[in-house]
Amino acid sequence: MRGPTDDGSRPLEAAEGTAPVSVAQAPGVAGPAAPVGVSTPSEVGATAAACASKSKRARRGKKRTNEKNHEERPTQTKPVKRDRPDDSFTPQGNGKRRKPTNTTGPIKYADALKMKEYCVAIMMEPYHDLTKEQAEAIEKQLQRVMDEEIFSPSTSATPVVAPSFRGKAFHSEGTLKMWCEDDFALQWLQRNVVKVTSPRAGTRLVVRKQSEIPKRVKAGLLIPQVEPEDDLDRIRLRITCQNPKYRVSNWALYSAVPMENKTAIYLILGIPEDDAQKLKASERRIHYKFGNIYARFQEDRITALPNLDATEEVPTDSGNAVTKMEESQPGPSKEPVVDIGSSEVGPQSDLGDLSESELVDIDESGLSSDDGAANSS
């Protein structure tokens, strides 16, 4: 048994009692025989080369498999839309429809402004609403004037030139609206409208731009203290005389609704903008009998009508208390009869032309004369 080497390791020795294994050399093999379990350097190199070659073939085969799978993988496409009977196909070639060209070209600002001037309206001056029947009567009178010029015998060799209009004349905003073709038609209309009699005494018919039509603001007005003899004409005249700073004759009445308690009437009015500004400046106050009533404009977003039974005292500069109608809270027992914001506007009628036959007859509605209004103390 040998001792340890210089580096401290000990050589591997055969176990005691065992003899070394010897392998007989095969016939025809040159060179010394190697012990069992020990590979020669040539065998190790051959084994490593075989493993490397096998690994390369495996990688090459995997790459080819991936490429083949990628080629064989079907491409995903969107589902094909089924044909419908109304589907059309754009023709190709000579049969293809051509895009229409704009023959008029761009419209200049001056031309657009002139076209706007040709949109006119026939109205009464001072302004009052024209009814549909009155507008149709005015159109018929103008047509008779035009026919007289066309069909009247003439000794001149020059043919008669009649005015031209676009579209159709129609009644809107209390006026008769038209669209003149050119300056000649506009001048003809201005020259001949004076020949037509105005349907209202003290007024005359004029031609104005449609942009000059007076605008109205929708408002609600509760009229308290309705007596059996009070009709809409009496109510209008009372408001007109007690409020001279407002042009009540130009107010339009859309609807008149008696209240559920039969002691008041609620009016939906169209008030001109100038009068609406005056009303807002005076806290929407309108003098009526021996107290005040208040206009309710659409932008106030009123959800309920004023309660006649509930009043509050508002102090004034003079120290006197003025009662003011309060709004009733919405509830199951106090539903608003008319909602200003959502009520439908019917045909406009001038408050100055109201009569018992045209609108609600308060006398026939059975309104009592109970005093539930707020009066000034």
From TrEMBL:
Bias type Low complexity, positions: 19-53
Basic and acidic residues bias: start-end ranges: 1-10, 64-87
Pfam family, one: DUF4780
InterPro entries xref list: DUF4780 (IPR031961)
Record's compositionally biased regions (Basic residues): 54-63
Organism: Euphydryas editha (Edith's checkerspot)
Ranges for domain DUF4780: 120-293
Lineage of producing organism: Eukaryota, Metazoa, Ecdysozoa, Arthropoda, Hexapoda
Protein name stated in the entry: DUF4780 domain-containing protein
Highest taxon of source: Eukaryota
Residue ranges with Acidic residues bias: 353-364
Chain segments carrying region Disordered: 1-106, 308-377
